[in-house]
Amino acid sequence: MKPVVKLHETYQSFVIEQLQQHYAGGLLVLVNKDWPLITKLWITNLAGITTLLRDLYCARGPAPRDPASMLRSFLLFLLTKPEIGITAWVDELYRVPLYAILSGFEPGDVPGVGTFYDFFARLWAASKNNIKPCKNKRKRKPKKGKKGEKAPTTTPGRIMRLANWMMRHMDSKKDLPMDRLFHFFQSQFLAVSARLGLLGEIGALNIAGDGTPVVTAAYPRSKPTCNCHAQGLAKCNHPRIYSQPDCNSGWDSARERYFNGYHLYTLTAANSPYDLPLYPRLHPASRHDAVSFIVSSVEFSQRFTLGIVDKILLDAAHDAGPIYDLLIHQNIEPFIDLNVRGKKNLETNCDIQISPEGIPICPAGKKMKHYGFDHSQKRHKWRCPMMKKRTTNTCKKPCSTAKFGRTFHTCSIDNPRLFPKTPRDSEKWKLIYKRRTTAERTNKREKIDYKLESGRHRSTKMWYIRIYGIMMCQHMDAWYTHQQEDLKNLKQLISPKAA
Prior knowledge:
The chain is α+β, with helices and mostly antiparallel strands. It folds into 3 domains: 8-123 and 482-498, no CATH class; 135-337 and 434-454, no CATH class; 346-422, no CATH class. The protein has helices at 8-23, 34-42, 48-53, 67-80, 86-95, 97-103, 113-123, 158-168, 179-195, 289-303, 321-329, 427-433, 438-449, 460-482, 490-494; strands at 135-136, 205-217, 222-224, 240-242, 248-252, 257-269, 277-284, 309-314, 333-336, 346-347, 353-354, 360-361, 369-374, 379-383, 387-388, 392-393, 407-411.
């Protein structure tokens, strides 16, 4: 049978009834730390998941478990015991009646492990559990990077070719297996956070992006497709069958070691006071941040329908000309820290040079002063650094006889990397860019607070379900904190003592 869509008010009535039945007699008690958990699930409406998945159930057969209750139980698992597995979580549902009640199940009547995985399969819009086929070429380790730096891309010019390809195919959206997860996350979580004002100005959204390694196994597991080893050949170039084809080996520059798994790239609302995530994307571990960003940002722009992205904040690993071109093509202003590749000044067609930071250098060797942006000509104006009170030139050998001193103009369209629309040395740029670290705090919450890497999953499907579940919990935490004053009387309403 197809599941029946139940209103969220029905779940709230069920919780009150069950708490009064099992916790009002004094045999079971609720402690103070239980109430934040109860409140978070009380205010989270998950009825939309039943509507989304209803057509994926058969019209005949026994009545299925309520998809909203299944998802609620999974989120409760991540909120309480993310370090254990689903099998151990089912035992917790039997052992702790509160967990079953908050999930939407009667104590003692909870779903089994197989029921959970049947539900997970319906969240994944593909018949296979991984994106790539299991049969692949033998995977090699990438080159080591320097301390604090990403490992270099293996193919020269890859970022330029990828960015150009994306600009040509911006309008051709490719369906992905995790689109069903993002559709529900956007409609039921991002939309709520936007209404509460937790994502910043939704009409001109600022986004920060950053990648982080996700370790899934100690080493890549694979089986040969040939008998070369039996013939005495230790290594061959024949394809192998990998249990995790979407993973490979990558270089963790922060810890200076190799790891096997994914490269998780997350886009975060930069102006969110709670560092709320917007879009996750799992890439192979060996992929560079710049490549991951190009793929993730284009996919996000094709799917995000709640607002318009105005600015994107990125670290120096993304400082590549094609990324600037891609963002400007999307009418997005890039705020990217400059990766100084050399110490030589760039020559121009006059006696003015350009520093590696994009600041004009006068013939006397001094950095010129920024004097505003000309919106009509779309260019920056720079003045002589030796001018005082606008008309007094203190330079011993002035290079211009102009009353207001030497001036020089730089156009963003000529080199958006060196001459961004908002100069890097301006207070406005510093004020906006300091919010870039919100992406790092988001990654920290997912990996440390919610123990992302504790999942012992062998498929990309389950890793995406775990990541989206954690992101939902992050938004639920923000809702609870933001509305804490309005919810302070909720305890008296739900408390079993009130019966």
